[in-house]
Write a structure and sequence with these properties.
Length: about 350
């Protein structure tokens, strides 16, 4: 599927985007990255770059461009000579960020519209859109300890009471899913939307829960602070599993429908913290819970029936193995003195 295919990855210097780029290159693709570096970093793409011109870097089959895709002419230029688009570029962050930056999150709708329209005009063969579990209604996720698994059909903007997304970020993602389906219905664009559930792993930042817990543990924070009661649960999904599912979705789904990419089991924040303590071989004397901080929904996990049927996919990496890999990366790549100084800002900003 990917050997010698020309692929554009928007947001390709970001956390998930950079892992996707790695996988595409290993599979023989010719990859173009378009990123404004508002949250992505060139160092996430660990290749021997030479700067070809200002804002452009080249390494083998990879070229990276610093561009603002809200500028339509630049988006049109990025589409040229590409066959497949993975659209991950977005204003995004962890719970603290999307809670405190609603206006920035709303800009995603305009960005997505430009990307989809220019991809259609450029006759791109396939589009894979990185959506989010934040599209799902709150009322299905309010009960702590729930066993309910979120199904793709739980969110349908054309059915009464089905659309009730999570903050502005979730609404923007839901509206962009609708837009992509409209391009398929009217113009026959082959596309897919991947609803990503609570991804974590190497290259993630401290606005997301697992990295925040790891940072605090490696800094030996005592008392150790967890946002909320800690009984809110999530299906933390390792980034390598997410990338595998995105590639499969781009290959196998053409009707612009959605597919869950997450786990169908879950752990609480308190359990996640205990697992981090076990791996770093340290435990605080006191654990505190800050009820004033944003925590999101109470319980979230994915129904994987559709992913298993259409993609033959389910996650492979266990919580313990994924946490271990992420902790090893954090230790080797972060200056803990800088993290200690900047942690209050890092937890809320990108």
């Amino acid at each position: 599927m990917w050997k010698e295919r020309s692929v554009l990855v928007t947001g390709g210097a970001s956390f998930i985007g950079s892992h996707l780029v790695d996988s595409l290159l290993k599979n023989g693709a010719i990859v173009t990255v378009a990123d404004d570096f508002s949250s992505g970093k060139l160092e996430n793409l660990e290749y021997p770059f030479r700067q070809k011109s200002k804002g452009t870097w080249k390494s083998g089959n990879l070229s990276v461009h610093r561009v603002d895709l809200k500028e339509r002419s630049l988006t049109r230029k990025m589409m040229r000579d590409n066959e497949v688009v993975f659209h991950l570029a977005a204003q995004h962050g962890g719970r603290g960020y999307i809670h405190t930056h609603p206006a920035e999150c709303c800009t995603n709708m305009g960005l997505d519209q430009i990307v989809f329209e220019e991809a259609w005009r450029a006759d791109i063969e396939r589009i894979c859109f990185a959506s989010s579990a934040c599209v799902y209604p709150h009322y299905l996720q309010e009960q702590a300890g729930s066993s309910y698994l979120l199904k793709e059909e739980d969110t349908d903007p054309f059915v009464r009471d089905k659309a009730f997304a999570d903050l502005e970020y979730g609404w923007a993602k839901l509206m962009s899913e609708m837009t992509l389906k409209a391009y398929h219905r009217e113009y026959g664009v082959k596309a897919s939307s991947v609803r990503i559930f609570t991804a974590y792993g190497e290259r993630e930042n401290e606005t997301h829960a697992i990295i925040a817990l790891i940072a605090k543990a490696l800094l030996r924070k005592d008392p150790f602070e967890i946002w909320g009661t800690g009984e809110q649960d999530r299906n933390f999904t390792y980034v390598g599993d997410v990338v595998e599912a995105m590639l499969l979705a781009a290959e196998k789904i053409e009707d612009a429908s959605t597919v869950n990419v997450g786990r169908d089991d879950r752990i609480t924040l308190n359990q996640a913290a205990e697992l981090v303590f076990k791996i770093v071989d340290w435990h605080p004397k006191e654990i505190g819970h800050d009820l004033s901080k944003p925590t999101g929904v109470s319980s979230r996990a994915a129904d994987l029936t559709r992913a298993k049927r259409l993609l033959s996919w389910e996650p492979k990496i266990s919580y313990e193995e994924g946490f271990r890999r992420t902790i090893e990366w954090y230790r080797s790549h972060k200056n803990l003195d800088v993290v200690r100084r900047d942690l209050p800002r890092l937890l809320m900003e990108r």
